[in-house]
Amino acid sequence: MVPAKDAFSFIQDADSEIYDILLREITREDQTLELIASENFVSYPVLQMAGGVMTNKYAEGYPGARYYGGCEHVDEAENLARDRAKKLFDCEYVNVQPHSGSQANMAALMTFLNTGDTIMGLDLAHGGHLSHGSPVNFSGKLYNVVSYQVDRNTGRVDFDSVRKSAVEHKPKLIICGGSAYPRFIEFENFRAIADEIGAFLMADIAHPSGLVAAGLHPSPMPYCDVVTTTTHKTLRGPRGGMIMLGKDFENKWGAVAPKTGRTKMISELIDSTVMPGIQGGPLMHIIAAKAIAFGEALQPEFKKYAQDIIDNAHTMSEALLEKDYQLVSGGTDTHVILIDLSNKGVSGKAAEKTLERAGITVNKNMVPFDKRSPFITSGIRLGTPAITTRGMGKGEMKKIVQFIDQILNDIENDTIVENVKLEVKSLCKFFPLYRELHD
Ligand SMILES: *Cc1c(COP(=O)(O)O)cnc(C)c1O
């Protein structure tokens, strides 16, 4: 389906060049299967608010204490976003200003650490994230990084070696969570290790935060000193980040002691690290869109949505296992499936490229102990949030696995690619995106 002719005609009139690009992207999103685990489709109200008039407002500072006048309404929007986030995650404090997940992580790390301090995070090649200590990222440049890995057999975090390494290197902060970890994050195990060595524990729930909000993934709040997340993955909000504290606490360790002599609360330090520390004016249109998304996530229907995401991932995993695909950790607890294609004789790169030609969007991904480079990889990562948002269920999951399998079994066969592409297109027609935009 193509959007109604006049839905964006004002953009066409103003700038036909970008209009044509927009139309191609709308068509791509509508007519292909989005299996990238970190992506989703926001609701139409979130979409509209993210493109709304609040983009015009400068609001450096926080509600009630801004650097500029005219902030009374954006204050209301930010307060609403905060109140809803606190309710959603059952936390005492939240900062909704981080522009993205990486910014949230930067602010959290800079609040708790000094340059040169030691951190521990999941190895990027084992499912971690760039901002957890990769040498090409600020986190790897500012801090001394010790990475932990998953166990070769189970594909799950190897807590014996985490503990051993933590005792040896005494990190000041441990990060749990990742981008390609199909299982629940084991907050309790990490807490025990952090307590043993007196480290801070930070959870990055960028991926499963929607599942956490729905109560279908354990909550980090009782175990972690600080929690960061994106808002645009399973949480299905606008592209952005946030930082939460299950319980606020005093900054007692002195490394970032305040000039005033008064012991500050961690929440105050996080606020000032976000702004003016690393960001300027907040994206008020995005914060208002976050408020809408949090409101949606508080509805009972969101819990059903999150359950559908997980059910769909289970259906897909089982169908893949039946066809002899090797899944890292043997399956999934979440929306993420990580396939090791080594036994199929196909690289992650080749799989990504060929599936894309058939209208199936996935990303190549390192698997633990991968022998190939990050640019080639032995695996692909799949995720169910976006196709679940479109309303697809069990039958469609099985069909999608068949499509993937047909292509990967005969990767040079262009006829198969063309046939699957047609089938993908007709499947997508039954689950249109943004009905509001159609004739
Ligand atoms: C996606 C992700 C992020 C970063 O999000 P951006 O918004 O792209 O900066 C951070 N941490 C984890 C674990 C992620 O998966």
What does this protein structure show overall?
The protein contains 16 helices and 15 strands. With 439 residues, it is α/β, with parallel strands linked by helices. The protein folds into two domains: 53-297, Aspartate Aminotransferase, domain 2 (3-Layer(aba) Sandwich); 301-437, Aspartate Aminotransferase, domain 1 (Alpha-Beta Complex), CATH 3.90.1150. Strands 4-10-9-8-7-5-6 form a seven-stranded mixed β-sheet, with helices on both faces. Strand 7 (173-176), helix 8 and strand 8 form a beta-alpha-beta unit. Pyridoxal-5'-phosphate binds next to helix 5.
Layout of helices and strands, plus pairs?
Elements: H1 9-14, H2 16-31, E1 33-34, H3 44-50, E2 61-62, E3 65-66, H4 72-89, E4 93-95, H5 101-112, E5 118-122, H6 138-142, E6 144-148, H7 159-169, E7 173-176, H8 187-197, E8 200-204, H9 209-213, E9 226-230, E10 241-245, H10 266-278, H11 284-297, H12 300-322, E11 326-327, E12 336-340, H13 348-357, E13 360-361, E14 363-365, E15 379-383, H14 385-389, H15 394-409, H16 414-429
Parallel strand pairs: 1-13, 5-6, 5-7, 7-8, 8-9
Antiparallel strand pairs: 2-3, 4-10, 9-10, 11-12, 12-15, 14-15
The structure holds pyridoxal-5'-phosphate.
